[in-house]
Amino acid sequence: MLLKPTALPLTAKEFDEAKVGLCMGCGCGCSYIAYLKGDRLVDLYGHPADPRGMGSLCSKGMAYVQLVNTSPFRLKGFHLRQGEEFVSVSEGDAVSFLREALKGRVAVLMDRQTASYTDYLMLRELGDIYVDAPVVDFLPSTVDFSRWKDFKFILSWEAEPVYSEVMASRWLVDGVERGAYLVCLSSIHATVCAKASEKHLLNPWKQIEFLKEPPLPIKRFLQTVPSLVLVGTSLLASPFKNSVINILYQWRKKWKVEYSLVGDLMPYPAGTLQDLFNRLEQYDTFLVLGNLLRYFPPEALDVLKSKKVITFSLFPNFSVHHSHLVISCTFWTEREFIHFRNGFGTLYRTPPVLKPPQGTFHIPYILQLITQKREEPLTDLLLEAKPIETVEEKPLPKEGILLVCDNTLVEELGRWNLWTHELDKYQKAILSPATAKVMGVRDSVEIGGVRFPVEISSNVAEGVIWISSSFEEYQPYDPGVRPGAFMKNPFFRYEVLT
Ligand code: SF4
Fold first, then answer.
1. Does residue 228 belong to any structural domain of this protein?
2. Of 231, 262, 293, which residue sits at a domain end?
3. Radius of gyration over every alpha carbon of the chain, rounded to an integer in angstroms
4. Tally of structural domains, the chain
5. Which residues on neighbouring strands pair with residue 288, listed in sequence order?
6. Closest C-alpha residue for ligand 1 atom 4
7. How would residue 162 be classed by pLDDT, with cut points 50, 70 and 90?
8. For residue 33, what is the enclosing H or E element?
9. 210: pLDDT confidence band, cut at 50, 70 and 90?
């Protein structure tokens, strides 16, 4: 239920109206109060009565709410490719192009920040849905994250809430403060590890070995106290996926553990980018919501040249530069939006809070012009899913140097404003002193034909090279290289290099 603004304003600034919205930046869905003077946002606070955010917003949530709406980089209007140039066209011309394109076989590509659940429902009628997240058909979490504090043993397995579902970290910290024994098992030591009772810096092969037969003290915890397992969703976008699911299933069966998947996840029917790359030729038209073309390897981009690519975008990103038609769309602060892409299995609805910039369009508005169908009002926002089941065990890849290409707190969207971009400014390869020695690496390393500057850090497991996945060539500050340009399997977040 949507909260009301506090009776006493939280701001000392002058304002005309206070509006409550939910941040859709991740699966936490923190409530905020926006203080507006006219249409201008003058102050922003986490809602103190919100049981999830509890009065706080994280840096990326604050940046998204405050800066996307007024960003000088926002796209406006409709743009049609003519040769190497884009020309502005009218709504009528854009809709005619779209209507014609949708007569062919359509693949719809959706990211986490652009597509609402209602867009998903409308678009699956028009084509096959693909997402840049792991897709699961079982219950992604058996427990709400606000209950993490009640467990006495917590295993955090490649789960770094501070990088993705940020405010959920507080429940983990609360659990530790209340005496929980926290074990961190990960290929990088990040923020949560600072609170760990025990931490193991291991590559995923060794993590799996460790968890198949956990040490006796951990078994004792599992046998005697309420236990929770947090699994980073990136592990499910990797060749280790089936082993991870089977271990989780076994632990649940044997020790009745509760679990939460932490991070971007698709708990509704959809294909992955891996599925899409196997079927690219089958489609005539690609409808892109967000910036998913940055995962496309060069040969997949070549295939798109003979197809129609239509992109809904906030910014002139890589996908826009590879599109035939660009539609400038509204952001989740500017429209009714239902967030559904998270490992908590929760849907959150926010009302529009900020006025959309002129020349930006709601995705449902454009789709209704094509389909003549109205957006269906939704009443029930509960995810129904079956319990986790065992899956076919797949052989693990041969152990070698492993590239982990994943987000920090700064996601792709965060590259479009200086505030968040500066939190993690340059794309670099981070590896341990031992890995650098084995590889004979000093200042830079070449991966997939791209040379990255190197940072040596003891916070990365031996045999792992870590590179941020959120950079791309067209971002306004310190451009980097998109995953599709240097990964062999850019649909995965983990890839064996040798
Ligand atoms: S934790 Fe997530 S929902 Fe909360 S403010 Fe940050 S990005 Fe937004």
1. yes
2. 262
3. 22
4. 2
5. 109, 311
6. 30
7. confident
8. strand 31-37
9. very high
